[in-house]
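Something for you to look into today, if you have time. Could you write out one complete protein record for me, on any chain you like? The space below this message is yours for that.
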Amino acid sequence: MKETKEAKKQSTKESVYTKKQDNTQEIDAFAAISLVLGVASMITWLYPILGVSIAIPGISMGIVTHEIRRSYYSLIGIVMSLVGIVLSIVKMFSM
């Protein structure tokens, strides 16, 4: 009877581990999307409305991803999106 309980615990641990791996791949995709949106906001800051509209989803995806799993991609995406927003706002008010 002990063997069956231990076997159940082991199978439960394995299934949780495989679920975490699947979830991690999804989170890495969101971190990559945040990074891409951050780069795009750095490029499009010359058009302020476009730059801000690209940077806001980049920040939100980066924050959600960074809270779940601390990855450098999400952190870099957040920083680049913030810089894109700041540059867009400076450009908007300098016109």
